[in-house]
TrEMBL record:
PANTHER family: ARAC-FAMILY TRANSCRIPTIONAL REGULATOR, HTH-TYPE TRANSCRIPTIONAL ACTIVATOR RHAS. It comes from Blautia wexlerae. Keywords: DNA-binding, Transcription, Transcription regulation. It comes from the Bacteria. Pfam families: Cupin_2 (PF07883), HTH_18 (PF12833). GO terms for molecular function: DNA-binding transcription factor activity; sequence-specific DNA binding. Residues 195-293 form the HTH araC/xylS-type domain. This is Melibiose operon regulatory protein. PROSITE patterns: HTH_ARAC_FAMILY_1, HTH_ARAC_FAMILY_2.
Amino acid sequence: MAEIITDGSQKELKKHGSDEFPLLVSYEKLSGYKSGSFLWHWHPEIEITLVLDGQILYKVNQCTYHMKAGDILLGNANVLHAGFMEDMKDGKYVSITFLPKIIYGSYGSILRRKYVEPFLHNFSIPAVYIDYSQPWHEIFSEYVREIITLYEEKKEFYELDITGTLQKLWRCMLQNLPENLPYTEHSKLERNRMREIMDYLEHNYMNKIQMKDIAEEIHLCESECSRLFKRYMNVSLFTFLQEYRVERSLEFLLSSDDSIMEVAQKSGFTDSNYYAKVFSRVKGCSPQKYRKQNTKKE
């Protein structure tokens, strides 16, 4: 089973492509991950996700996208993101992950300053969702599929062809973004604090957690810690923690014979009834039903 390996800041450690050509095309499915989802992480690369089959509940910072087959999502660099099954249905997808420098070349390039950096640093654009509700989405989709084909075939000049297609894709996106889009740039300190919070939750979700514990960890007062999290994730820290515990419980639920009480306790819930209530709200069914249906698939 796959698992996303991260460091202490929730940065993914997997290398996407090579130093010479930092781009990777990979085929994945949610059921290939231990918990049936890829949990919160970030990386300096931009990631384009094309859903091939099924559906994915994709979350990027404070935004949620209900992706179906054919839909595409471009996730901005350095954003926190995660993907989950929806209605207990698997999701198969292909990802194109690349460093932005493929588009602009040298650091001092006008392409970086004029066309890439403003997008990368705008917190109001955590992702661009391609659902074919606008005419240009079809063109964008064709570029995505062309890049995948070029990568798979690896014919002569394929790196050059991918770079050119990627630049056309980028231009297509930029020229169709809303003109009145607000520009919001968050500080590096705030981004790092959010990553510290996510790392703390990952390593302590099974224990009792209070706001003061997290606030002390990132050296903020409790009220500011709460506001920071809500600003980034559009949900309270407590609500997020309960949902995160449910996602982490799936591994215990599906790969062991533990009782529901034992699964609940391993996931940070002290009350199995409350665990079942939160589980039903998040997954749409009871833990018992989820275990039965997904064990049967295997």
